[in-house]
Specification:
The chain has about 950 residues and is of the alpha+beta class. The chain has 36 helices and 27 strands.
Length: about 950
């Protein structure tokens, strides 16, 4: 049977979409009105997504809490956490759920047909038949609840979403995004925080929560998407028979109200917390935002992405440069948010003074008026168009399935017009149209219409208040104490009993019979052979060239790698700064803005990075590689190399004004990273106490690097000459022909193009003797063994780390077991943290870490008890198979050509053989419970190291400072 012959569905549209190599179908389920869109093609990485329009009417976070809660058991799969069971035991290539300002989506992906069907079944049952109606504790666990250990203990709020949003809104950037929506759309659902405001989340009742599901989680409000190589008709027939046919059409209003334009721009000031001891008065955020049409204007949707790039996000972009030149902000951010009904455009000056707001607006207006009057730099616009077109054609989304990203983008039109799911997928003609309009004043007119003359705008000031976080915590504690004091003895006893009941519910495992209802593959369904590395080593005139011969659609992925082995230890942090300098400063032939635009006009971009590679044969060894990466059409390889030569040999480091801008921007971006992803930095910092390679990582991108950058920015005038000198030294040590390795991922024509360019590249590198300098082998100061690092955050990131002496493939299984069983239950489900992870490195460096965690010492206690859990681990054959499948799923993620090329290169650099990875794979596939128990000694080794790092709330770290050898403030120390 074909899709067209399905009696339950009405075919509205069928069209060829050559850009996606797909046939697109738009259908409507006749009985319920459910909307269906299909992209049928030969991609084995199949995707299913079901989404609902879920406009919030308050900031209790009910859409977000619902997204968590429906995945906590359903009629067909009554286990307490089917989501986790799928993570542990499916071959998924993607499995998650996401809450947006106006929609909630549930996507899954898999290359295995049976597995894909299982994932679809679990997700459809979750959204339509969740256990939330039978079990109130799901709401309390995932949303919020009062927690009272006993009648004498303090009363607190807890809950997974509650703590997640405390962490999310600790980031000033996230807080600013939320406030921009509130001020631009006061009469629409966008005024409310769909994720939930921690101050408002406790106002949500169980009844209102259930009402939300009844109203919105119905087929008449759903959007179903299928992508890939499958029998679409069979899938749709099953979805109808199993779910949709059991519902009647429901008339509902889930429409997104449009905000009426303002008569004139508005202004608002909002406070945000900074450290108690913060003395820098330039900590404000100044933003100006305007509403830009609707997301159904396909030309505007694409053109404003290009405009935002050319005005603000490209280095040297005119509006960014004008603000920095005027001394307004240390970093200029921008956004064009087009995933909502009425997109908005924002320019943001970060770390400005509050009293600069009028000057900020003056510079913005005068700069834009100048561009409109004198015309845009044509090269900048061409670079922007080419940048987006290259990404569009390449369609490389890294680890994320292509079909997933297409499906999510479809919602940018489909949610607001059910007849237009493919509007933004078909874009090649729009890129051509934009090029034609370059000389017609098209982009200048957009600036005039949508920014300068647009009354629907807002000036928002995020004002720093030292110690505000502590005051808010104090006020919350007082509020909870007052509420507790108002309760009778009987009510307190009942509340303590309720807390105990929830913990008992969380401790109680799902019945085995329920667990067995989750469909699962067998070990035999898994391929035993590890995928070989694709890599050919060549010697081209004395230089090692590695070629990964792959079909890349005519793109040449080139990497120039320079071994940094000769860099002295005290200069290693400057490698971290160097990667932000290469390609972002003037050269002999271009200013840095022209350089960037020139590159993006003719290539897919040039980036620099610093990576560490271990050594499989000698685990104590590692290599630091400075890398320059270029992707370009094979026919543009010569241009890519010309630009890389320009960057490597003609960069002008002496422009200290530009160098200061880079240092200040690096500081700003690191603050965002450390606030939002503190778990990664905490794990690296803890490992840096005992691991040489982690010490280097910390020095070039972690806590230590931030400390250096903050000092360089603060004392730039007195240090600038030394900074220039150190960068020059590092470049002399590193950028030498004898340090060079070249990697090329392409077909053979790409390799030949690279060989042709190699002599000129080597000729431009430094061959002069390196200046005499004492080279010390000893690494410099290590972090303390136990560190508490204070930030103005409402939550913690807690890490324990150590070195395991011998690595086995079974550690990969243990990672799944800990991350989704032991740590998941203890740290997330019971502790209320948003996340918990573990990592076991092939070379021995390993860690346990929590993410957006309300706790500190309690989490450390959970980590301490991990060896006992592993020692007592037992599992049935079915459960063991489940863990193995989940592990292999992680190992066998589909790879794009660029990723496959990186894998081949890394295998050569780390001296990893196919035999190595086959051994680890066999250890995974053949694992028995006793093999997991045997790892308890390794976990003891990890914990006996004693390395401990927590990044988070100042008062929490201060309150539990006995856990640490030292504590310090991260920002503004």
């Amino acid at each position: 049977m074909t899709v067209e012959q399905l009696a339950a569905y009405e075919l509205i549209e069928k069209q060829q979409i050559p850009e996606m190599n797909s046939v697109g179908y738009l259908l409507r389920h006749k009985k319920t009105g459910a909307r269906v869109a299909l992209l049928s093609n030969d991609d084995e990485n199949k995707v299913f997504n079901i989404g609902f329009r879920t406009p919030p009417s308050d900031s209790t976070g009910v859409p977000h809490i619902m997204e968590h809660s429906v995945l906590c058991g359903s009629t067909d799969f009554p286990v307490k956490d089917p989501f986790v069971e799928l993570v542990k035991g499916s071959l998924n290539t993607f499995l998650n759920a996401m809450t947006y300002p106006d929609k909630t989506v549930y996507p899954v992906a898999s290359c295995n047909e049976r597995d894909f069907q299982n994932l679809m079944h679990v997700y459809l049952d979750a959204v339509f038949h969740p256990n939330i109606y039978k079990e109130e504790k799901i709401f309390r666990q995932e949303g919020w609840h009062y927690e009272l250990e006993n009648t004498d203990s303090p009363l607190i709020y807890n809950g997974v979403v509650y703590n997640e949003m405390k962490g999310a809104l600790s980031s000033p950037e996230d807080m600013l995004d939320s406030e921009i929506m509130r001020v631009l759309y006061p009469d629409t659902p966008y005024f409310h925080e769909s994720g939930g405001d921690p101050k408002v989340i406790p106002e949500l009742t169980y009844e209102a929560f259930l009402d939300f599901h009844r109203k919105y989680y119905h087929p008449s409000n759903c959007y179903i998407y299928l992508y890939g190589d499958m029998d679409m008709a069979e899938k749709l027939a099953w979805i109808d028979e199993k779910y949709l046919s059991h519902y009647e059409y429901l008339e509902m209003d889930s429409s997104i109200a449009m905000q009426k334009p303002f008569a004139e721009p508005v202004e608002k000031t909002v406070e945000y917390p900074v450290s108690e001891e913060e003395t820098d008065d330039a900590q404000a955020y100044l933003s100006y935002s305007t509403v830009v049409g609707t997301s159904l204007d396909a030309d505007l949707y694409l053109a404003f992405q290009v405009l935002e790039y050319a005005l603000l996000s490209a280095p040297g972009a005119p509006l960014k440069k004008a603000l920095l030149d005027a001394g307004i902000g240390k970093d200029i951010l921008s956004s064009y948010e087009n995933g909502i009904a009425q997109p908005y455009f924002s320019v943001i000056a970060k770390h400005a003074r509050e009293d600069q707001k009028d000057e900020f607006m003056k510079v913005v207006r005068e700069t834009l008026e100048g561009i409109v009057k004198n015309g845009f730099d044509r090269k900048a616009l061409l670079a922007g168009i080419n940048y987006y077109e290259f990404r569009y054609r390449e369609a490389d989304f890294g680890n994320f399935p292509r079909g997933l990203m297409y499906g999510l983008q479809m919602f940018d039109s489909w949610l607001y017009d059910e007849n237009q799911p493919f509007l933004h997928l078909i874009a090649l003609d729009r890129f051509a149209k934009m090029r034609e309009k370059l000389d017609e004043g098209y982009f200048e007119a957009l600036i005039r219409t949508w920014i300068l003359d647009n009354p629907h705008g807002a000036l928002l000031v995020l004002k720093p208040v030292p110690g505000l976080e502590a005051k808010q915590q104090e006020a919350l504690a007082e509020k909870l104490k007052a509420y507790k004091d108002s309760l009778s003895e009987e009510e307190l006893i009942a509340l303590a009993a309720q807390t105990k009941e929830l913990k008992e519910y969380q401790d109680e495992p799902s019945p085995q019979a329920d667990l067995e209802k989750i469909p699962m593959l067998a070990r035999e369904d898994i391929k035993r052979e590890a995928a070989p590395f694709i890599n050919e080593e060549l010697n081209v005139e004395g230089t090692t060239v590695l070629h990964q011969n792959l079909f890349t659609s005519g793109i040449n992925y080139i990497r120039l790698l320079f071994d940094a082995k000769e860099v002295p230890a005290d200069l290693i942090p400057y490698l971290g700064l160097l990667k932000h300098v290469l390609g972002y400063m003037d050269t002999d032939n271009y200013n840095y803005g022209e350089l960037f635009n020139e590159i993006n006009c003719h290539t897919g971009g040039i980036t620099s990075t610093v990576n560490l590679y271990g050594n499989m044969r000698e685990p104590e060894k590692y290599r630091i590689m400075v890398e320059l990466r270029c992707k370009a059409l094979v026919s543009d390889t010569d241009f890519g190399f010309a630009m890389m030569r320009e960057i490597l040999s003609r960069t002008r480091l002496t422009d200290t004004k530009r160098l200061y801008e880079i240092v200040a921007q690096v500081k700003s971006r690191l603050q965002m990273y450390l606030t939002g992803s503190g778990h990664s930095a905490a794990a690296v910092r803890a490992m840096a106490e005992f691991s040489d390679s982690s010490w280097v990582t910390d020095q070039i991108s972690g806590i230590a690097f931030y400390g250096l950058i903050e000092q360089l920015e603060k004392h730039f005038e007195e240090k600038k000459d030394q900074i220039v000198e150190n960068l020059k030294l590092v470049m002399q040590y590193v950028l030498r022909p004898e340090n060079l390795i070249v990697s090329c991922t392409s077909e053979t024509d790409g390799l030949e193009a690279v060989k042709k360019e190699l002599p000129a590249l080597k000729a431009c590198l430094n061959t002069l003797p390196v200046p005499e300098r004492t080279r010390t082998e000893e690494l410099l100061k290590r972090p303390a063994k136990r560190e508490g690092i204070k930030t103005p955050s409402a939550v913690q990131y807690v890490a324990r780390a150590g070195h395991i002496k011998k690595y086995y493939g079974t550690y990969r299984i243990l990672k799944v077991i800990l991350s989704y069983d032991y740590l998941w239950i203890q740290v997330r489900v019971k502790g209320g943290a948003y996340g918990c992870m573990s990592g076991f490195g092939t070379y021995g460096d390993s860690y346990l870490v929590s993410y957006r965690d309300p706790n500190l010492g309690q989490t450390n206690e959970v980590f301490e008890q991990t060896p006992e859990y592993v020692e007592q681990f037992d599992a049935s054959e079915r459960d063991m198979t489940k863990y193995i499948i989940g592990t292999i799923s992680d190992m066998d993620t589909p790879r794009t050509p660029a990723m496959e090329g990186s894998r081949g290169l890394a295998s050569w650099l780390t001296q990893t053989t196919l035999e190595n990875i086959q051994k680890y794979r066999d250890e995974v596939l053949d694992a028995q419970p006793e093999d997991i128990r045997a790892l308890s000694g390794g976990i003891r080794e990890l914990l006996e190291e004693g390395a401990f790092c927590a990044i988070g709330n100042e008062s929490k770290i201060e309150k539990e400072k006995e856990l640490f050898d030292t504590t310090f403030r991260l920002f503004g120390a």
